[in-house]
Amino acid sequence: MPRSLRPKHATVTTRTCAAALLSVAMALPAWTFSPLGAQAGPPRSARAGQLPAAYALIREADIRRDLYAMASDAMRGREAGTPDEMRASVWVAEQLRTIGVKPLGDDGSYFQWFTMYRTRVSTVSSMGTLGEQPLQVWKDFIPLGSAGADVQGPVVWIANSADSTVDVRGKVVATPMLRPFSASIRTTTNSPEVRYTQAAVAAMQQRFARRGALALLIVADTVADRAFDPLAMLRARGTYDVDGAARRFANQSNRAELPVPARQAGTPAFLVRGDMAARLQQAPTLTLQVRLERFETPSTNIVGVIRGTDPVLRNEYVLYSSHQDHDGVRYLIDGDSVWAGADDNGTGSVALLAAARAFARQPGKRSVLFVYHGAEERGLLGSRWHAAHPVVPLASIVAVLNGEMMGRNHPDSASLLGVQPPHRNSTELVDMALRANALTGKFSLDSLWDRPMHPEGWYFRSDHVPYARLNVPAVMYTTNLHDDYHTPRDKPDRIDYPKLTRMTQWMYLTGWFVANAPKRPGIDPGFKLER
């Protein structure tokens, strides 16, 4: 069989995507909208004249209503590359249209299309045998790499995985899973047994690759056995990339990565179920064949604009950023399989809608872009695409204000990422954001999350990064991670709506300051974004 399969498909055009979106829109629930009636007042301590009149249009009731719609189970988690992302994108575009934000996407629409290149293990062409027994991918074994593999040979059982005296060079090794160090297990995302298993297999892969094993079979312990089916579901999704995009990391290519050939991929590793241990100890012959398939699938950014009032400054843009996608429908946790993404990133998305209402009522001197980036969860693909192919000249974007997870944790704490070196690229923009915080949310700012040595590497995990790397002043507003992150528990009923409203007011007022400043915020001399 061929080493990779590339399914035939029709070329995806804007017209066909628009038609598909229209059909998705027909299935949307009829969400209700409250009129611009009762208005929330400004903070008591704010001095007259420092807040625009439209500030009062940022209301908790609107934010709550929008988030219950966007993060409802009907949206099915908004997974990139699926009709569910398209459904959410249509919903966002319709909200922008209702507010009065003008489209700035392809062909006069709100949508800027881009192509994702998806690479995954072929379920049809990947298979194996252990002795005379057939093995099925995802059911009996999980490939732990992102390359194809051909493995054949007798299995060598190593009872003690930590015993480094055994010569494993050129051998097919099977060994029990070693318990990972506690410090290596992530404290957020997915479920505890999956986090445990991911940490364990990563450490063991490194250990046996250094020792020159031909292939590695890791036999699940009781914890990893519980994680087997969830992990199979996660890894079966494969990887995504985009071609001709801006970089997220300094050493990243701007071209879509091709699959690594099996002969260059190093030691292939596989997770097998615990009940396979007895058969592996009998030195059977193992044959495994892993094949990849690569194909294209569309995603979209949603882009709208409110024109500024100044005849000169209106040609410059303040960019409000969010992402509309999340994780979709995945494995069950506590009886729920819809990973709704209320905080991640429904909160940032509805904050942009609230800011749009205010700017639509009272525009600033500069124009304002509202960009919802598609496929952020796939690796910042939408922002990497738009930063490289902006709908307006990149040099005309004076600042990027990115909202990411803005509605959880202590009611009076938050973080502004990009506030300190080496992540700070514009002191002038940071000063505007700090001034806005003093007038609105008055949050106590936690700077630990913005430090380059923070274990989560939080700064590099959202959509401001491709712009910052291209020397566009950029900051990120966030209330940081929590135990419900990337689980089905991230639901609208767990959001702190008064806090989210204050975060939205803070983000909005920063943009108002930038939109009306006589001088655009400058880039700090010598800025270089490296991790």
Describe this entry's structure for a reader.
The protein is α/β, with parallel strands linked by helices and 531 residues long. It is built from eleven helices and 21 strands. Strands 1, 2, 3, 10, 13, 14, 17, 18, 19, 20 and 21 form an eleven-stranded mixed sheet that branches. The protein has an eight-stranded mixed sheet with strand order 5-4-12-7-8-9-11-6. Strands 15-16 form a two-stranded antiparallel sheet. Helix 9 links the parallel strand 19 (413-417) and strand 20 (444-445). Helix 4 (192-210) crosses helix 5. The longest helix is centred in the middle third of the chain and has 20 residues, at 342-361. The protein is elongated. The two termini are 42 Å apart. Mean pLDDT is 91; it is low at 1-15 and 24-41.
What's the topology here?
Blueprint: E1 4-5, H1 14-26, H2 60-70, H3 83-99, E2 102-103, E3 111-121, E4 127-130, E5 133-136, E6 141-143, E7 149-157, E8 172-176, H4 192-210, E9 215-219, H5 222-236, E10 239-242, E11 269-272, H6 277-280, E12 285-290, E13 292-306, E14 317-323, E15 328-333, E16 336-339, H7 342-361, E17 367-373, H8 381-388, E18 397-403, E19 413-417, H9 427-439, E20 444-445, H10 465-469, E21 474-478, H11 497-516
Parallel strand pairs: 1-13, 7-8, 8-9, 9-11, 14-17, 14-18, 18-21, 19-20
Antiparallel strand pairs: 2-13, 3-10, 3-13, 4-5, 4-12, 6-11, 7-12, 13-17, 15-16, 19-21
Helix pairs in contact: 1-3, 2-7, 3-7, 4-5, 7-11, 9-11
